[in-house]
What we know:
The protein is mostly helical. The protein has helices at residues 3-30, 37-59, 66-87. It comes from Cohnella silvisoli.
Amino acid sequence: xxxxxxxxxxxxxxxxxxxxxxxxxxxxxxxxxxxxxxxxxxxxxxxxxxxxxxxxxxxxxxxxxxxxxxxxxxxxxxxxxxxxxxxxx
Length: 89
């Protein structure tokens, strides 16, 4: 599979993660059914950490949770390192 394919997948995963964070913030305001934190972390772990970080900044969501404040940048750093190693071949 070529690089364009993986870029497209990355964009989609980040948009889904951003959307889940936005939906969760909306539900939090309405006291509705929330997206489990495990789900948010799962999407971030499979490649959506950048989308989660953007959502945290835009909607000020999950910014008081140390697991998100430190976890999302750590996942993003891991993704950058893995991408770098992947592109070395």
